[in-house]
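pinging the channel bc i need a second pair of eyes. not urgent but kinda urgent?? the chain im working w is below, pasted from the shared doc
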Amino acid sequence: MRTLTSDTQKLRGLIDREAERAGFAVVAVTSPDSIPLAPSRLAQFVAEGFHGSMGWMEETLDRRGDPSALWPEVRSVIVLAMNYGPEHDPRELLERRDRGAVSVYARNRDYHDVMKGRLKEIAGKIVAKAGGDVKVFVDTAPVMEKPLAEAAGVGWQGKHTNLVSREHGSWLFLGSIFTTAELVADTREADHCGSCHACLDACPTDAFPAPYRLDARRCISYLTIENKGPIPLEFREAIGNRIYGCDDCLAACPWNKFAQMASEAKLAAREDLREPKLSDLLELDDAAFRTFFSGSPVKRIGRDRFIRNVLIAAGNCADPALAGQVTGLLSDASPLVRGAAVWALSRLLPEAEFNACADVALALEGDDGVCEEWQQALDGISQKEIGL
């Protein structure tokens, strides 16, 4: 067991003060060997294919499950959490189908950028005080932040697999500082989910095969962000107007009643991303997309994937007023966009108009995937006609 010396106390006091100054809601410490079950759980997740197309998870399996495998010199892991609690329940926007729902975490600056600079400042203070070496991570390296945060006492991994805090609910960004300094670990947090399954019931696509287990291939966040291809037909209606990520399981957590709205201005939502109009977003070409989402995590998926998402939302909106914009995207340079436009248009146009549009577009379409979208849409209309 590590001994609590005067120097250790002073270093921890410094870390706590600097974390508070930098706007972190929680700071806690654990040891690099505190997540012994993580490697096997991660291996099972990958073996069952629940990671979908996120090949990097399989490629970094060994390092991801063990902090010491990632950096053998690490002696302590400092976990820091930043509150991004929303002002209102984000699910309220789901009823406004003419608006796009962007996940709460992505409504302003990329939290990776916000947190990493602050973590580096704290890490620099640690080295100045205690010497040694440090490494800073914010969700971009093979680090299992959630199990480490649970081990450090920041919160616990709920049945939705996300971190839950008694003080901050499900709204915490996580980052970590690996250090060669010897620090005393904090007490692990217990699981306080009890018999509650609100988060599991809230999932629109049944992405949880069991409590504490997630099949990312069915998760709307995965489908709209990580998934590079067309969104599978079976999930399109359930996506509703969610155009980037999904907050349903997070927002359903009863522990959110103790969460406070994020007070840090840099984490407050951009006004133009609180409830953007689908009609405005459909107009974005690549240059406009990059400008509009400059500094936002949304920018990372690129314009084509984003417009794919907006088109799915447009189809679910079922507002004929959007048909003109969607028709224009049938000639978009991206097959991904054209394919999504086909599905959206099949829900926006009367049958005769859609069939006429198909006759023209199919004669010009050279992409097999888009042609398949047309055929699926036409088949769907035929099945409706005969009552299937």
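so The CA atoms of residues 196 and 254 lie 9 Å apart. and Strands lie at 26-30, 76-83, 101-102, 134-137, 156-157, 163-164, 172-179, 242-244. — does that match what u expected or am i reading it wrong
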